[in-house]
Amino acid sequence: MCGKVDDASTRSVSPDASHTARKDNTTNQNKGKGVSIRKGSFKRILKLGEGMFGKVSEAYVREHHSDSFHCAIKTAAPCKKEARAMVRKRCQGEAAAGRRVTAKARHQFMEEAMAFTENYAQRLVSNEATALAENDHPNLIKAYHMLTNSAGTVVAFTMYLVSGGDVHELIGDFANGRSDKPATWKRALMPISAILDVMIPISSACAAMHANNWVHLEGAYEFAAPELAGPQRWELLDLRKADVFSAAKMLLFMILLQNFQPCGSFDQEMNLWKGILPENVDAIIKLRACGKGLYGKLLDLAESGTRLNPYERPTMEQFVTSLKVIEREHKEKQQLWSKTEALFKRPKKRTDLPQTG
């Protein structure tokens, strides 16, 4: 891919030629030139996203602004909200033990929590940059440079800037197409062709990095599709070291389960998936508890690929077959529901009957 990322903050990598198609305002960028970038030599333009331990921004290299070299830069940025939650939990533990928490102690707790989150954020950024360097796939995002501070600690890295929508927007488009249905109507499956357009290249990229023990562990799945002439190119981002969940399971959870957001009282349960982490087992239990039929089958399908051994994951043919079975059963349930609903509809009042005084 781009070679192994090292601590040299001035090491440059030439962008891949297949990744040069962008929107009109950046079509001519990344002309295969290796661009040296140093800490402080880039200018942030727009914040693209922010999580618990980092943020991604669009930026350009100051000295190469004439070449329109735009990139995405991911920076370790510990979240104060997470640190406050840690302090609050610690204070509750102290109070439960009968110890009084002073303002000075709370301040010390906050400093320790911020130090922990900062170290954790830097470790995540370093691991992701390493993962992008060690894995090479056409549908895996390209990383260019690793930026370090004076102590040699990784603080950020730059990568190819991808334009286009993500999977959440794609799912939203299909969901919005059913906005004319009653509020109690279950959302329909995305077409098999639309799912496969995402799943085939992404699954291939996941399999490539899964063999090297890299996988997605956070729920903030980011898939983006540049506006290319022809089929969309789906890029896989946001890597973590493999732990409990496999790539196949997380893909199914984040892509498929969001297509079945139920109505009414189940909405709050499904919202748990917006920020799910692998250790959040309670969210899985709650989802299974509220999952009737279709949800349970999707979970069973997902759990068939939970082992880290790549040979235990279902093949693409098995996956497609399972999807088609689920889609057929889902349509049959919808048809059965429509027939049942019609049986209980109140008959229209007849107007041709003689009126009695």
TrEMBL record:
Q: Which residues bind ATP?
A: 80
Instruction: Please give one Gene Ontology molecular function term for this protein.
Output: ATP binding
Question: Which Gene3D superfamilies is this protein grouped with?
Answer: Transferase(Phosphotransferase) domain 1 (1.10.510.10)
Stretches assigned to the Protein kinase domain = 42-357
Q: Does the keyword Nucleotide-binding apply?
A: yes
- InterPro entries linked: Kinase-like_dom_sf (IPR011009), Prot_kinase_dom (IPR000719), Protein_kinase_ATP_BS (IPR017441)
Q: Which SUPFAM superfamilies match?
A: Protein kinase-like (PK-like)
Is Ligase among the key words of this record? no
Which keywords accompany this UniProt record?
ATP-binding, Nucleotide-binding
Region annotated Disordered, chain positions: 1-35
> SMART domains, from UniProt?
S_TKc
Q: Record's superkingdom? A: Eukaryota
- In Swiss-Prot or TrEMBL terms, this protein is called Protein kinase domain-containing protein
Per the UniProt record, the source organism is Symbiochloris irregularis
